[in-house]
Amino acid sequence: MSSTLPFVEVNPTGKADAVVIWLHGLGDSGNGFAPIVPELKLPQSLNIRFVFPHAPVRPVTINNGMEMRAWYDIKSLDFENRADVEGVTESMALVRELVEAEMARGIPSERILLAGFSQGGVIAYHLGLRFEHKLAGILALSTYMCQPEKLAEQRHPANQDTPILVAHGLYDEVVPCALGKSAFSLLESLGYQAKWRDYPMQHNVCLEEIQEVSQWLVKRFG
Questions:
Q1: Which of 41, 68, 112, 190 has the highest count of CB atoms within 10 angstroms of its CB?
Q2: Is 78 an active-site residue?
């Protein structure tokens, strides 16, 4: 089975037996995060393939309808309605195809991890928590949740015990830290295995965070 989403792939030296699907933020592309792989300094023995898909190009309302890569439209900066549910659902289906394509290639779902930054994190949460096969983990960076009020009824028990790392910049001016904390608090209240980390940074990633993510990935796949 092939996926309709184009992507950049970073393969290990050996035969891949684990996969990280990493979703970029608004206006970026899969190329934006691909250079993080060598920065993670992961042991070669882990044999992780990294897949960095490109979001579809669409007009984004808050950017005067300019077309750019986006997992969904942002119609307003009001936090309750920031994520366009229809777009989130469409992108969730596209990323689901990617996960299923990896499973079809012989990678068990519990060796597949979903990671996302900002808009990408919204999709990682939305799919990962509703996915009917157990995943290796969910990495949610500088992000928030679409329709958090529906998670309790829509979640799938398969990923109830899946480790989730939530990381956010304290000085994030794009997605305020409180929004990330709110998603984390919801996860905690629903009994998820979530861990919170914050860093003195804005809407980006920092070295300390990359090191922490690296250690967390080693635990997930080691």
A1: 112
A2: no
